[in-house]
Write the structure tokens for this entry.
Amino acid sequence: MRESEKMRVIVFILFLVALIAFAIDRVTLSAEPRVGLQGAIMPIGKPLQIKTPLGLPPLPIPADNPPTVETVALGRRLYYDPILSADNSISCASCHGPQMGFTDTHPVSTGVGGKRGTRHSPTVINSAYNFVQFWDGRAPSLEEQAKGPIANPVEMASTLDDSVRRLQADPKYVALFRQAWGTDKITIDLVVKSIGSFERTVLSGNSPFDRFYYGHDKNALSASAQRGLKFFTDPKKGDCEVCHTIGRDYALFTDNKFHNLGVGADLQGHMIDLGRFEVTKNEADWGSFKTPTLRNIAQRAPYMHDGSFPTLKDALGHYIGGGNLNPHLDREIHALDFLSFDERDDILAFLESLTAPLPDKLGPPTDLLVKQTTQSR
């Protein structure tokens, strides 16, 4: 090969190396985000197909927040990290922990400085299927819901801007957001999108009920639970399915609507918490709260929006008595005191059959677990 040709080859190779280096620099250093419809920043990582277990429908996914391996991992870290709170003491998991059925074992949760809330923490389990979030439905999505506790003075007691500033000052989070979202600039929208993606993986299905009802395994349910299922669905018995729905192909065990059960009403029918009414100002919503899913219900004591019933038996007893009278008591609520004690026990056995193991890797990342253990000593 002539000397001039060798020189051209060398120059060409150097040009390719420079071009590759420039491309790497653009991706890893300047971190150009991928922008979707209406200017929304889209994740750049490996797409993740979230597999739904037996008994659940396909998972609804927002067009601007398709899950990726990286965003789910980032969301999981954010969910367990108290860095989002004003004094680094409260995380999402403080009130929605996996060991507590992704809710709280206390009637109402405790926030920064020991402040106590007014409502029981709703479960994150299968919350991806909720049409709206919170007991009163004030948030339209998981992403919007995640903003609420951060800025709530009784919960994390921070501001959205301050939480973002703390994350932006942490080199580890800057790298993780770059990896997941392709940008060095952390925003609250990317924070809550990440948390929402993680929460969509918190799914419960393939319970003994599902294997019996949808898997056609007649041995999956005990005889008592099978009887309880009949009482649960029978309009002349419990008629619980009217609100805790069971479909032909799947069961969410919620109608995603709001009902007044009389929970929290005094003897005069007055209620301290007016629930959905505070959001809509619609008289029909007075004292109404969202129907919770019954998935893994046996692990989620105490019950109701105010955590006023310590056990499932106590909660069932509220329905047996026909709720608490008030001017807006739901028309579906009526006394079930005709149910025998054996029939009540069978319904409880059925409710317990809705418990299923949750997916793996829903707990805190190992390094965060070590950090929290060290801080608690």
Notes: The CA atoms of residues 54 and 206 lie 5 Å apart.
